[in-house]
Amino acid sequence: MEHLLVALPEYWKSSVKPRNFTDFCEMIDTQGKITGIWEWRQWNPKTGKTVKREWNKNVVTDDGAIEIFKCAITNAVPAAVFNNIYINNNSGSSTLTTALTNGQTGITSLALAAIPAAIPLNNITPATGATLVQVGYGTGQTQNVTVNGAAAKGATALTVSSYTSNAAYAIGTNVVPLPNVAENPTNTNLKVNQTGTVVEKYSGNLSGGAFTYTPTTGAGNRLVVVTFTFADSANGGTTSDGSYTDAWLCNVSTAATTNNYVCHEINTPMAVNSSNNVTVTITIKI
Length: 286
Hints:
This protein has three helices and 16 strands. By secondary structure, the protein is mostly beta strands.
């Protein structure tokens, strides 16, 4: 006879019990956090039969979480660590040229200042869903809107699925495309929205000083902060002058392609020139 011990209240409350360890793992709500799930199995080496089995959910310790970061997001070995920041001008971040009123209904188009890069109907590859833009980006009042038609670089209007404005948004309010968790672009479509001059820069392999690890107690609080400043030649750097909208944390120093990315941020255009540097700071929590 095999004994099964399960240390999870949800298991005992469920009327339908998992049939195996894989099904047990699937029933656990991780709430988007890294979760450890264990199976202990005691078996008879003579018969090969399992005598006792235990399923349990463990915790990722504070120190363990930081060590995960130190092995994956750092400046040195092991190979393929995420130790580069890449920036470019691939996103059509813009501003409203016609105000929206609170409660305005049936909005199907947003009037924008000429967008600096195309806004596609679907997210950057793989195209798993419609692109979202955020009205009011960078302020305390925002609304996410679904794009309903692609817009070319320089367009002054963006077609969106009909919606009702949740607040008043003045002329000049930021409208910024949002990144998506399914993104995994090739080197080509990493910058496909920018049909004009592509400005781009890799930080190069970051030094140890670019990484700060904080083992604060509790899930979701352990964090790593990665920081790098992009400057042009007048300020001691090698970044081309231009307005940058996108930043990626990646594990190569040139020609990033699929499976090279861990996170993506889209901003309003940030200028690099003789009067301006851009410092990118990325915080990741476990």
